[in-house]
Design brief:
With about 300 residues, the chain is an alpha/beta fold. Helix content is about 30%, strand content about 30%. The protein contains five helices and 13 strands. Strand 3 and strand 4 (about 105-110) form a beta hairpin. Helix 4 (about 215-220) packs across helix 5. The protein is globular. The N and C termini lie far apart (about 80 Å).
């Protein structure tokens, strides 16, 4: 009897352990099956030319290492890039990078002479697309370009003088509306254009006469009749009114009447993107606060 009782206890104990093991295994497997594995491919914006001679922003897949991204960006800017219908790169296909490095957030990049083997009209565009595309990479605040180890100081065909270190202050898609040498302001305003069913951001650097501050100029230009004369469009419309804005050090807050109720939902993000990037590219402001009825909707930092 004693032996039978011991065997029965061993059997029951073993059975319980087995059942618990099965249950725990099922739970673990169930939890594992619910885990979603996400592969993150970082994106960066580059600028390609459309048929209207505008440089448009498109996204390319990059890597986590900034140095590895330099040749990726340059290759996508070359004229043989046919990955985007209706858009093209403008850097000559035989352009080669001789050397490059990053020191103190400045990219030093040396090309062969093919870089500027373009006609006079495209020469400045080549520098624009290089500067704006490379400066979208993290931890790069400026670019110093050389050709076969000689610093590029003047564009050979157009005789445009370049700064020693290039930043987005160089401008892109430049337009001039100047009738006086007084009160000249420079702002870069982000519009968008529809191309083959896709919307692309189009930054336009404008030189104009105005007594207004740059934030007001940006807002006015995103809502004025200029858009009717081009294929460019703005996400700002009559339903979106900026009631006021206020500066404080390197910060500006924009107060809207109705921003959170925009339809479709991504419209709000488009308005925020175009305004924030226009302000960042045009001023020393490093933070933009978007508000609605004293409530903070979003905060963007440079």
């Amino acid at each position: 009897m004693l032996r039978e009782k011991i065997l029965r206890k061993i059997y029951l104990t073993t059975l319980i352990v087995f059942i618990l093991f099965v249950i725990s295994s099922f739970t673990i497997n169930k939890n594992i099956s619910n885990i979603k594995v996400e592969y993150h491919n970082p994106l960066s914006s580059i600028y390609l030319l459309n048929d209207d001679n505008y440089l448009l922003s498109v996204d390319v897949i990059t890597k986590d290492n900034v140095l590895e991204n330099i040749p990726i960006i340059i290759d996508n800017l070359k004229e043989n890039n046919k990955n985007y219908h209706g858009l093209k790169g403008i850097i000559p296909k035989d352009t080669k990078i001789n050397d490059y490095k990053i020191e103190d957030k400045i990219l030093y990049i040396d090309f062969n002479k093919e870089l500027l083997n373009v006609n006079k009209d495209l020469e400045e565009k080549v520098i624009e697309c290089l500067v704006y595309s490379l400066l979208n990479l993290k931890n790069i605040n400026g670019i110093k370009i050389s050709i076969d180890k000689e610093p590029l100081k003047v564009l050979p065909n157009s005789n445009i003088i370049l700064d020693d270190i290039l930043t987005k202050s160089f401008g892109i898609n430049k337009e001039y509306s100047i009738n006086s040498m007084k009160d000249i302001k420079k702002v870069t305003v982000y519009y968008y254009e529809e191309n083959n069913g896709n919307n692309y951001y189009v930054p336009i650097t404008k030189y104009l006469n105005s007594n207004d501050d740059k934030v007001k100029i940006i807002i006015d230009n995103l809502k004025n009749n200029y858009l009717a004369e081009t294929n460019l469009m703005s996400y700002l419309n009559d339903k979106i009114n900026i009631e006021s804005y206020e500066y404080q050090d390197n910060l500006v807050s924009l107060s809207f009447n109705a921003l959170s109720d925009l339809k479709p939902e991504n419209m709000k993000e488009e308005v925020i993107y175009t305004l924030a990037n226009s302000i960042f590219d045009s001023t020393d402001i490093t933070k933009v606060i978007f508000m609605e009825k004293e409530n903070i909707i979003d905060i963007k930092t440079k």
